[in-house]
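Exercise 4. Each item below gives a protein and its sequence. For each, produce the structure-token representation.

Item: Cyclase (Streptomyces monashensis).
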Amino acid sequence: MEWTGACYADTPTTEVRVWIDAPPDMVWAVVSDIELMPGMSEELRSVEWLDGAAGPAVGARFVGRSEHEAFGAWETTSHVIECEARSVLAWAVEDPARPSAVWRFRLRPRDGGTELSQWMQLGPGRSGLSAAIDRMPEKEQKIVFVRMREFERAMTHTLAQIKQRAEA
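Answer:
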């Protein structure tokens, strides 16, 4: 059976959403505190702001340290590319002009609470996944598909954790 799906160069994306019974201010307090994220992620081990930054703002940078069974441990520097309090927080991983990934939280008031979405785009810059694809180019679409499903599951888990904290 032939495998069909996205290639890395297609910059595949995924998005998950959740409704939270809390106002955007309370959800933003959790989303914008990136140092909470390792406690809500299976891969992310630690996060710290760089260059004296104390919170998100366009141009602020942070380092994240992650670990995955198949990829080992790695460290990346991310650059905040969008930041509007109670509305959106996005960052590009490594080179903002050609990131290895882009991540975005978007908050929208809805039905007396907040709709929170988390979106991510893989590529176009090289990432740890690129090495796996280099070793097995014939399996590129399957590698990308599996990794995108991992991201989707992880994001669903993260949003559930944010929901729990914001509603508490």
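Check: Strands lie at 13-20, 44-49, 61-68, 72-84, 88-93, 101-110, 113-122.
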